[in-house]
Structure formats: C-alpha cells, structure tokens
Amino acid sequence: FYQYLIDDDEEVRTNACFGMGVLCAIANQQLLSQYETILNRLSHVLIKETNIRMIDNICSCLCRMIVVSSKHVPLEQVLPVLFQHLPIHEDFAEANSIFTCLNLLYEQHFTQIEPYLPKCIEMAASIIDDERILPDAVPIIREFLRSIYIKHSVAFVQVMQTLNEPLRVIVTKHLQIT
C-alpha cells in the first residue's frame, strides 16, 4: 500500500490509503516500527493532495493508527493537521474510525483534544443523522457526545449555544436532554 500512496491515479491512491489504514488496524502492534515512515509519507501526500476522498482517507488512516497506539503517533504534531482537514467531506464510511479515535483521545488524552472540543461537537452534530454514514457509527458518535456532556457539561452547553437550531435539535434528540 505504501508505494501506491503517491500513485498518479486518484483511485489507486485512495484505495491504497484506505488499505494502509486497515492494515495498521489489523496488524495492531506489528507495524509500530513503521509508523514514523507511514506518517512521513502521509504528511508529504497531504501537503499537495487535492482529492477530497483521499484527504478523508488520510484522516481515517491517521485515526486508525492513533487507536492502535497513540503513543507511537506524535499527537502534538498530528492533531492540528487532522483537525485542519476534518470533518470528512465525501467518504462518510470513515466516520466510524474517526469517532472511535476521537472517543479514545477524549478518554485518554483530554488535554490534547480539549482545544478541539467545539469542532468535535459540531462535527458530531452535523454527521450523526446523515444518511451517508454507516449505521454502526451512530452509537459511537452518540457515546462521544454523551461523554462530553456528562464530563464537561459547561463547555458542552457553551458549544451548543453556538450551534444553529437544527444542529441543537439533533444533539438534544440523541442525548435526550432538554
């Protein structure tokens, strides 16, 4: 997959990136020694990439790598780039891996994700009822929102006040709050 991340064909690049992310997830600890190499390649690709689906897949690949071993991913460098390119725009099947990662980051690396909470809540609100996401992503997104609401309710309410009315209704429905 690695060599095809820079292929001239957009479809090949996108499939290679998806495959790389899945391989990292399935290989679990076996590819940790290659993370730096993979991250460097993804970084170089992302700098000049214009294909929206490929960018979504890069975000998902990064998220899968973080879920496998967040300590092998330099979060202080990766998170700003990741959040610069989120939310996903085209490949909504990647919502599952992205919100699984956000859940993990919220639970294990709160101080590093805290500055991105407003964007996280808005992303979750805007996608949770989107018919383009896979049904198994909905409970993951809902749990993410619930965790923030329960543990950081003041910040959550502040962000809710900035959302437009339709998004507030969606979040309220999923959290069953008033």
Descriptive keywords:
mainly alpha; 2 domains; 178 residues; 10 helices; globular
Count of DSSP E strands? 0
Major sheet attributes: none
Category from helices, strands and their pairing:
mainly alpha
Unreliable residue runs: none
Average predicted confidence as pLDDT: 95
Hey, roughly how much beta strand do the residues contain?
Answer: under 5%
Q: Estimate the helix proportion, in percent.
A: over 70%
Count of all domains: 2
Order of helices and strands: HHHHHHHHHH
Number of helices: 10
- Radius of gyration, in angstroms, nearest whole number: 16 Å
Describe the structure.
- There is one protein chain.
- By secondary structure, this protein is mainly α.
- The protein folds into two domains: 1-85; 92-178, no CATH class.
- Helices cover 70% and strands 0% of the residues.
- The chain is built from ten helices and no strands.
- It has helices at 10-27, 35-48, 52-68, 75-85, 95-108, 110-113, 117-127, 137-151, 153-162, 165-175.
- Helix 3 (52-68) packs across helix 5 (95-108), helix 5 (95-108) packs parallel to helix 8 and helix 7 crosses helix 10.
- The longest helix has 18 residues, at 10-27.
- The radius of gyration is 16 Å and the shape is globular.
- The termini are far apart.
